[in-house]
């Protein structure tokens, strides 16, 4: 847990609601932490902006206070801004990372820079959504924006977000749609918005749509996904970027890509963390990241020589081996660094897929695999949040339905840093197929820990934009990119690569169970080998984690909370995977509000039948305001045929005990080689 700091160099005044006007008359709701020295405008200060849809008033309230009060106490004006149509901001939200959202952000920055308490300089900070739009707005080059701190985000909305992974339909696609659906129609706070709150609420309810319907209309990397993907033109970002993530986060691979492709000043940091800021983590070790943030801001907006840019470009946590388990509260390892990225020190090592399941040496002939649909049931999460059962179990279970190639025991420690690749020569007996590749660390006792995974829809083997069906029996080549990782394989351990044709529910299965024929000798694994770097021993030590006190709050038990569970009926062949979502009950006495929410995502499939795949969602949200109580209840179902996806969604809204709105959706969308 971070140390709580209560005294700061500057006294801070908190302005609960600040209205930021936009050119079209829309007002965005903001919360401002302002050093008192800047109140009169005599001593203006730089601004740090966080721009999110997650309701600053009651959604991220407690977390925001711990971060922004700390930074403001060190001489910055901190702004937490609600996106149009969310929280207490005017309007309705129509999608994620829209052009309108970005234009609103540019206008907000221009307005902030003109305020008497701002010295004309703005930096953006954000994790996840706020990390995305910080990069997207930087690419639009508002003059006042001087730097971006992006945490747990990506440069590519198609390839490495939660919608499509390697061209495969991610389990998180419908999951995330249902999550946002449960929040997009929540009202502004009547205490802030006044009498017009109910009309705004009804506008949001009427406008709320299951975003999954639009997402499924874009199954390839088309213009929809290119918008907001800053990898389309890295050169558009001219300002300094500090990119941070964790190895247990879905977005870690974006950090090295940003370092490799941006041309301006940049730093990268990856710890063992899940989807969190590095000072408040569920996977230790936490670091004094707010101190690092201040060093960055002081350097780029106050001209203070903090030594921030004297350090290596890329610093990461080199993870040691751990036995497989479903939950890690800490990962052993050490900090290592590379002066530049890509690093010329990192050299590829080629390990051939050989006969009799050998990895390395010579090989020839072929091997076949048609995986059962239970491969992947215990794979854990994709974008891990550091909760219990987020990590995969012993890989020997999934290996029972996979092709496995394993090296000889290592004679000395072997460390990798970067993205492993499987170069595959193969043929398929079906026109559509996918491949899931796992890199594993096998201990002398046989236990197998997953190190990294990679997925590829094989109709996307040449391009995510231009898919092409497979001709059964024809030989193709494909490269499967695995996650970036830093991992140390110990002496005596063996390196294994496992190949399967299913990985449910992480990836929606192909319409038919396909058999892949892998050409041995021509297929190989490529590992990014990192040699020792003596300078790592002299890396500066991070300070202990610290933050300001949070706003008053208390949590209460939730009755019958959904549980993380995997079940398998051996008689019927039905398999079920449950993921709890956003289950909590919290009272915030300073604003007189209590929120209660429960969510569950359930994935079902019958072994042997890929067309039996179903995802079910159920979300309930209750908000108790002093004036009234509102209830959101939505359910969803996604299923498929060989040719179409089907999305069914229900929505019921109550005020107190009165049903005030009800709507159903039932849409079919053609499958496009998925």
Keywords:
11 helices, mainly beta, 674 residues, 8-stranded antiparallel sheet, Jelly Rolls, 3 domains
Report what the structure shows.
- The protein is globular.
- With 674 residues, the protein is mainly beta.
- Helices cover 14% and strands 37% of the residues.
- The model has no long low-confidence stretch (mean pLDDT 96).
- It folds into 3 domains: 3-157 and 227-338, Alpha/Beta hydrolase fold, catalytic domain (Rossmann fold, 3-Layer(aba) Sandwich), CATH 3.40.50; 166-216 and 553-589 and 592-674, no CATH class; 347-532, Jelly Rolls, CATH 2.60.120.260.
- The protein contains 11 helices and 32 strands.
- The longest helix is centred in the first third of the chain and has 15 residues, at 99-113.
- The protein has a 10-stranded mixed sheet with strand order 2-3-5-4-6-7-10-11-12-13, with helices on both faces. Strands 25, 26, 27, 28, 29, 30, 31 and 32 form an 8-stranded antiparallel sheet that branches. Strands 14, 15, 17, 20, 22 and 23 form a 6-stranded antiparallel sheet that branches.
Structural class: mainly beta
Low-confidence stretches: none
Strand order of the largest sheet: 2-3-5-4-6-7-10-11-12-13
Q: For the residues shown, what is the average pLDDT?
A: 96
């Amino acid at each position: 847990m971070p140390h709580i700091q209560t005294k700061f160099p500057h006294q801070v005044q908190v302005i609960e609601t600040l209205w930021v006007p936009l050119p079209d008359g829309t007002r965005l709701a903001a919360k401002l932490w302002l050093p008192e020295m800047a109140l009169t405008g005599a001593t203006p200060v730089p601004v740090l902006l966080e721009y999110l849809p997650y309701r600053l008033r009651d959604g991220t309230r407690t977390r925001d206070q711990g971060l922004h009060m700390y930074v403001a106490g060190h001489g910055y004006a901190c702004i937490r801004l609600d996106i149009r149509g969310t929280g207490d901001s005017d309007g309705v939200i129509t999608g994620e990372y829209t052009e309108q959202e970005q234009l609103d952000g540019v206008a907000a920055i221009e307005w902030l820079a003109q305020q008497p308490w701002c010295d004309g300089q703005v930096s953006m900070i954000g994790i996840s959504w706020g990390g995305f739009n910080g990069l997207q707005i930087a690419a639009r080059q508002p003059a006042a924006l001087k730097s971006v701190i992006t945490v747990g985000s990506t440069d590519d909305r198609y390839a490495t977000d939660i919608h499509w992974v390697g061209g495969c339909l991610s389990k998180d696609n419908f999951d995330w749609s249902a999550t946002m659906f449960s929040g997009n129609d929540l009202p502004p706070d009547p205490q802030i918005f006044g009498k017009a709150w109910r009309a705004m609420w009804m506008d949001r309810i009427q406008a709320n749509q299951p975003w999954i319907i639009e997402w499924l209309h874009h199954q390839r990397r088309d213009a929809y996904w290119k918008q907001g993907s800053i990898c389309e033109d890295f050169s558009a970002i001219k300002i300094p970027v500090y990119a941070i993530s964790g190895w247990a986060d879905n977005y870690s691979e974006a950090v090295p890509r940003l370092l490799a492709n941006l041309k301006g000043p940049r730093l990268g940091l990856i710890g063992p963390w899940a989807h969190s800021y590095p000072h408040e983590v569920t996977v230790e070790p936490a670091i004094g990241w707010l101190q690092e943030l201040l060093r960055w801001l002081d350097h780029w907006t106050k001209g203070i020589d903090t030594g921030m840019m004297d350090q290596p470009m890329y610093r990461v946590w080199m993870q040691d081996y751990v036995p497989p388990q479903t939950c890690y509260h800490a990962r052993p390892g050490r900090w290592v660094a590379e002066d530049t990225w890509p690093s010329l020190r990192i050299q590829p090592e080629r390990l051939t897929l050989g006969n009799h399941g050998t990895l390395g040496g010579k090989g020839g002939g072929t091997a076949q695999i048609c995986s059962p649909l239970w491969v992947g049931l215990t794979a854990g999460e994709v974008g891990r949040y550091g909760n219990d059962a987020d990590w995969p179990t012993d890989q020997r279970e999934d290996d029972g339905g996979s092709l496995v190639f394993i090296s000889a025991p290592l004679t000395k420690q072997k460390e990798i840093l970067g993205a492993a690749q499987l170069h595959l020569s193969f043929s398929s007996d079906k026109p559509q197929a996918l491949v899931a590749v796992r890199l594993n660390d096998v201990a002398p006792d046989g236990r197998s820990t997953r190190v990294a995974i990679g997925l590829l829809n094989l109709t996307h083997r040449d391009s995510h934009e231009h898919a092409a069906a497979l001709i059964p029996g024809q030989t193709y080549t494909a490269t499967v990119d695995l996650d970036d990782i830093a991992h140390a394989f110990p002496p005596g351990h063996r390196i294994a690569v496992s190949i399967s044709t299913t990985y449910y529910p992480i990836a929606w299965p192909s319409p038919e169970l396909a058999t892949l024929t892998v050409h041995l000798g021509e297929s190989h694994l490529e590992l990014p080998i990192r040699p020792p770097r003596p300078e790592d021993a002299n890396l500066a030590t991070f300070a202990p984690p610290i933050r300001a006190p949070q706003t008053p709050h208390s949590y209460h038990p939730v009755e019958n909370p959904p549980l993380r569970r995997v079940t398998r009926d051996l008689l019927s062949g039905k398999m079920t995977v449950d993921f709890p979502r956003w289950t909590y009950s919290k009272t915030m006495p300073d604003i007189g509000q209590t929120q209660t929410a429960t969510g569950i995502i359930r994935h079902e499939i019958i072994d042997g039948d890929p067309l039996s795949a179903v995802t079910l969602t159920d979300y309930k949200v209750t908000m108790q305001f002093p004036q009234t109580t509102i209830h959101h209840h939505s359910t969803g179902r996604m299923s498929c045929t060989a040719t179409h996806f089907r999305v069914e969604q229900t929505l019921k809204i109550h005020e107190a005990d009165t049903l005030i709105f009800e709507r159903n959706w039932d849409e079919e969308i053609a499958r496009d080689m998925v």
